[in-house]
Design a protein that fits this description.
With 307 residues, the chain is α+β, with helices and mostly antiparallel strands. It is built from 10 helices and 13 strands. The chain has helices at residues 11-22, 28-40, 86-96, 104-113, 124-139, 145-152, 156-159, 216-222, 224-233, 238-247, and strands at 3-7, 62-68, 74-80, 101-103, 163-168, 174-180, 201-204, 208-214, 261-267, 272-276, 282-287, 294-297, 299-300. The strands form 2 sheets. It has an 8-stranded mixed sheet. The protein has a 5-stranded mixed sheet with strand order 7-8-9-10-13, covered by helices on one side. Strand 11 and strand 12 (294-297) form a beta hairpin. The longest helix has 16 residues, at 124-139. The termini are far apart. 54% of the residues are buried. It binds glycine.
Length: 307
């Protein structure tokens, strides 16, 4: 058997790699990396890779991380500009440096040194989205950049999005990958949870893996992915671990428009689950019993109830 789990926007990525993963042509790290490539290359996904909505000053900045659940090795990049596959740069950080996380210009220099493929990430559609946002500020006569960033980032429909992948093979190896262009119209240099191991991504093949999408500041403040895996280790099943992890956010002070979080979980025995603060959201999974990725509902966890 083999298993892959993803955020719903990762379904096509799972299907692009799953058969080669099952055949042993791709190992768990290859599977999650190459699945992420599919979404990073999709200009219609405005939260990952090319076509991501730019930051406040009009540049697309990418965050990504990858983790090997067998060795607990990890690699990540944050605020990376101008490269097609941030997930592969993150993997190279893991495999070719003694470091875990490279940021900004240092990450871009590293990407150039390893020969990562450059790319123009800003598309006509993403630049138009940015221009519309700036025009709306001008209409409100907002000029102070700190006020601007607050005003622009309040729309949850465009503010957040990310893709994550979790994989498990028939020998118990696991890996996880997360890739995003982050909070739309964010302050330049803002890093979210996706490149922070433990916050947006965690994988331990002896227990399981978890990864987050949503407002990364919430998972950064709670180390949410690692705490979800801790809940698995303590005996919770995947749906319960995902729900209880999101419940940990209840005590955080944050505006209601920013209290959005989704989490996917894959246990080391292949059981999986997902939870979200929003009704109607789904996650993708596939194992060898189904011919293509299945979209399944997430458990809904209200954050406004009792802690
Ligand atoms: N969860 C993605 C981000 O906040 O950047």
């Amino acid at each position: 058997m083999a298993w892959m789990v993803a955020s719903a926007n990762g379904a096509a990525g799972i299907d692009a790699v799953f058969e080669r993963f099952c055949a042993g042509e791709l190992d768990v790290l290859d599977a999650v990396e190459r699945a992420a490539w599919v979404v990073e290359d999709d200009p219609e996904d405005h939260s990952v890779g090319a076509g991501g909505v730019p930051n406040l000053f009009g540049a697309v900045e990418l965050d990504a991380s990858i983790m090997d659940g067998v060795t607990l090795r990890a690699g990540a990049v944050a605020g990376l500009r101008g490269f097609r596959h941030p997930i592969s740069v993150a993997r190279a950080v893991m495999e070719r440096t003694p470091h875990v996380l490279l940021v900004g210009e240092g990450a871009a220099t590293f990407a150039r040194v390893i020969g990562a493929e450059p790319a123009v990430l800003e598309t006509q559609a993403s630049l138009q989205a940015w221009q519309r946002a700036i025009a709306s500020l001008e209409a409100q006569e907002l000029r102070d950049p700190l006020t601007m960033v607050r005003a622009l980032t309040h729309d949850p429909e465009r503010a957040v999005g990310t893709v994550n992948f979790l994989a498990l093979d028939d020998e118990g190896r696991m890996a996880s990958a997360v890739s995003t262009s982050g909070w739309a119209l964010k302050w330049p240099g803002r890093a979210g949870d996706s490149p922070v191991i433990g916050a947006g991504n965690y994988c331990d093949a002896t227990v399981g893996a978890a990864a987050c999408t949503g407002f990364g500041e919430l998972s950064l403040r709670t180390q949410l992915a690692a705490r979800c895996v801790d809940l698995l280790a303590a005996g919770a099943d995947p749906s319960e671990a995902a729900s209880r992890a999101i419940g940990l956010l209840r005590r955080l002070d944050a505006p209601s428009s920013e209290r959005i979080m989704h989490i996917v979980v894959l246990r080391a025995d292949g059981q999986h689950g997902a939870a979200s603060t929003r009704a109607g959201t789904r996650y993708a999974w596939r194992d060898t019993s189904v011919p293509r990725a299945v979209l399944a509902p997430r458990v809904v966890v209200a954050l406004d109830g009792p802690a």
